[in-house]
Amino acid sequence: MHDVSTNEQERLAALARYAILDTSAEDAFDELVQLASTICGAPIALISLVDASRQWFKARIGIAKSETPRQISFCTHAIRQRDLFVVHDARLDPRFADNPLVTGEPHIRFYAGAPLMTPDGHNLGTICVIDRRPRLLADPQRRALTALARQVVVQLELRREIAEKAIAEERLARVVEGSNDGFWDWNIAGGAVQFSERAVAMLGYAPGELEPRVDTWERLVHPDDYPAMMSVLNDHLAGRREQYESEHRRRSKDGAWVWILDRGKVVARDRDGCPRRMAGTYSDVSKRKRAERELDRFFDVSLDLLCIAGMDGRFRRLNPAFHQVLGYTIDELCAVPFIDLVHPDDRAATAAEVAKLRDGETTRYFENRYLRKDGAIRWIAWTASPATDEGLIYAAGRDVTRTKLTEHELRRSEARTRSIIDNAPGGLITTDARGVIESVNPAAERMLGYAAAEMQGGRLDILLNATFDLYTALDRITELPVRRRNGETFTCELSLFEFYAADDQRHFAANLLDVSERHVVERMKRDFISTVSHELRTPLTAIRGSLGLLASGVVGELPAEARPVISVAERNSIRLISLINDILDFDRLESGKMTMQLRPTPLKPVLERSIESISAVALQDGVRIELHCNGASVLGDEERLLQVTVNLLSNAVKYSSRGDTVTVSASVEGESVEVRVADRGRGIPADLQKKLFHRFERADSSDARPKPGTGLGLAICKAIVEQHGGAIGVASREGMGSTFWFRIPAAGAAQ
Amino acid sequence: MKVLVIDDEEDVRYVARLSLGRVGGMDVVEATNGQEGIARARAERPDFILLDMMMPGMDGAATFRALHADPETADIPVVFLTAKAMASEVQRLKNLGARGVVLKPFDPMTLADEIRAILGG
Questions:
Q1: pLDDT on residue A707
Q2: Is the ipTM of this complex over 0.90?
Q3: CATH superfamily to which A8-164 belongs
Q4: At the topology level of CATH, where does A180-290 sit?
Q5: Is the Cβ of B11 closer than 8 Å to some Cβ of chain A?
Q6: Looking at residues A178-193, what average pLDDT do you find?
Q7: Model pLDDT for residues A445-485, shown as the tens digit of each residue
């Protein structure tokens, strides 16, 4: 037995644990005080519990009050000792003589109290007997009272245990409810299983819908999962495994499969050690399983490399993309430290990156080269995150080989393009869609005298002092005077084109050429031609004049043999003059210096004048010229049209035979007038017809009998006709003659 | 009919002299430059002057302006002789006040007729 605890606080706490104060009367306790009263022959018997300031009676006989103040209580004294406390005559006891319970009601003379000692040594109170006269207590009575005290404690203990159990059960129920797990309890021999409500609800059943037997349960397991589950279960039942744990699918009431985590343990065995009862829990892990499966699928379908590696530098888990990219099987890849697969030049950097991961740093972007099984290099870009407590690295890699190569190509191509632009002799300026300058090449900087940075952001049209909307010049070559920074002006040939850059925005590019020098050269060339031509004319005047005078006999008759010689010289000097005239005409036409005075011009006089000018030659060659012309008028330069028709006529006569007729006709064709000069000569081969109007092409280039001419006549005609806004051509068949025609706008036609 | 030919080229003057004198039956006097031409014009009082355009020093145009400014020679018709065959050039010379323009090289057999036509027209 324990000693009496002297700690009042602990005693009061112990009393509180029994939760007995102020409870209702109970038969068990009432019977015990009845017994005490009877055994001891005392009129008053109590079960008194000593609280902080009172004593409260759980059961009482012979007294009405249910409690009295503690200071006057006899029990307070009784609980200080472990054995029975007896006062034979209170009047004679100095501790109680003045006690109001002694001096007044109920006039206590005798008291005997047995302490109610708990198993842990606290005296909660007493069971006591009281008499109004002094008396003694026999030994059997003393023992009986002590025994009754023990019975009171037994009763108190019992009540406390029941109460505590109830609380524990309630708590457990709450836990079960809250855990969302199902419980099962399997009587192994009989096969009966008790399922909790949640256990059956997990599969969509109502309580009682499933027969509570183990085979019911087993039938619901997915056939694919069944063998593994049974193997684990048998291992556990046979004692080869500490705990039973299995993840498997079970069919729910609606036919769907539910993933269950089933865990349990044998809780009772018979005397031979054979398992008798087993209990456990079900958890619905479908959500987790689904998540895992989803993760697995992503892992499998990913084009990127996904892996889990150990801090030891070996792969733990790889997705199939690794095989695709590196050519090795997954097993081969897991068999070696991954650093062995890295390009030797990248191993140091890779090791450093892994070291950082080991220290808990995340890899945001890291590139290294891996060697494929076939020896090819693959560039892989990595992101990785360490799980230091697991000792794992989670990494995702992307094969960026193509991008790398493209990047390389791109850089090379860019450098090449840049180099071309930088070294181009022409200025190149690009602008945005509004004409704001974006880039300027060095040639443009030199040309304009500004640094690129000074021009960027400015407007191209302002830079070039353009007096017109630049964009009307798109895809055309324009010349304009441009001022350099130093105030000099130069002639700039501008070609403007649009392009779309990678940003899908419209941009313009201006190609600038300083053509001042070219202009000077062109002018010099023209001046040269014109000077040479003019300088030729003066001696030719003397030659031609002298020969003409000689041939005419004005300065004396020539010997008969000399006449044809002089005639050859005269004819060729005339031909030389024509050539010079044609060259000058053609040069002026080409340089745009020959200006046309276009005005309404009656055609007939023009044709008559041209026939007249050629008539002498025609007469000499025996060729007749016919004219068919009504009153058609054209919009033209009379002198130039004359030049054209004379040219065509002279050709026609030249290629006609004696006795032939050349026909000149003109007619209105819609808004144009067509002039035709037809001969009956030998015609022109089809392949020559088009070339005829080019410089120095002759209808008789390959002819054995060349006709005199400069080869520029038709080219001049073409240029003149085109400057009239017209067209020129020929229709001819070999042996059937040729018809040269030109068409120019009629006088009334819209200009 | 008396004609003054002003041209710096001796050979051209020679052909012109034959052409106008022998073929055309005119009296031909000559000058080798503008200055001399003006002096001879005053002295000879020709019926017309055939004036070369391109001459060193005083060119045809300057000579013409001098002749035109001088009351003694202002009324003598001038026909220009030029190697520049462009219509614009011909027009420019006519605008100066020339009676006509003859292009180099000319046909020696028809030169006199051509000039008579110009003067007569």
A1: 57
A2: no
A3: GAF domain (3.30.450.40)
A4: Beta-Lactamase (3.30.450)
A5: yes
A6: 84
A7: 999 999 999 999 988 888 887 776 767 777 777 888 888 88
Helix (H, G, I), strand (E, B) or coil at A594: coil
Chain B interface, best mutation among A531, A538, A567, A589, by max B CB count within 10 A: A538
A506 pLDDT exceeds 60? yes
Q: How many CB pairs under 8 A join A and B?
A: 75
Among all chains, which residue has been given the structure tokens 């045809």? B60
Q: Which residues of A touch B105 (CB under 8 A)?
A: 537, 540-545, 573, 577
Which residues of B1-121 form beta strands (DSSP E)?
Answer: 2-6, 27-31, 48-52, 78-82, 100-103
Percent of chain A with pLDDT over 70: 96
A243 three-class SS:
coil
φ/ψ of residue A452, rounded to 5:
-50, -45
User: Smallest CA–CA separation between B68 and chain A, in Å?
Assistant: 26
Residue in A541, A549, A595 closest to B105 by CB: A541
Collect all residues of chain B within an 8 Å Cβ-Cβ radius of residue A533: 83
- Choose the closest CB to A548 out of B9, B54, B108: B108
Containing structural domain, residue B116:
2-120
CB-nearest to B106 from A545, A552, A588 is: A545
Q: Which residues of A touch B14 (CB under 8 A)?
A: 542
CATH (domain of B68): 3.40.50.2300
Residue A635, burial from CB neighbour count under 10 angstroms (0-12, 13-18, 19+): buried
The reply to whether residue B85 touches residue A581, judged by beta carbons under 8 angstroms, is: yes
> What is the DSSP code (8-state) at residue A486?
T
Q: Where in chain A is the domain with CATH 1.10.287?
A: 520-588
Per residue, the 3-state secondary structure of A410-445, as one string, reads HHHHHHHHHHHHHHCCCEEEEECCCCEEEEECHHHH
Strand-pairing partners, residue B77, are none
- CB contacts of B18 in chain A (<8 Å) are 545, 549, 554-555
| CATH code that applies to domain A595-745 | 3.30.565.10
Say if pTM beats, i.e. exceeds, 0.80: no
Of the candidate CATH numbers 3.40.50.2000, 3.30.70.970, 3.30.450.20, 3.20.20.480, the domain formed by A424-514 belongs to 3.30.450.20
Please give the Cα distance from A88 to A112 (Å, whole number).
8
Interface mutation target, options A537, A543, A588, A641, chain B, most CBs of B under 10 Å:
A537
- Decide if domain A302-405 falls under CATH 3.40.50.720: no
The tokens for B69 are 């400014």
Question: What pLDDT does residue A585 have?
Answer: 80
Q: How many domains does chain B have?
A: 1
Residue (of A82, A22, A83, A90) closest to A57 by Cα position: A22
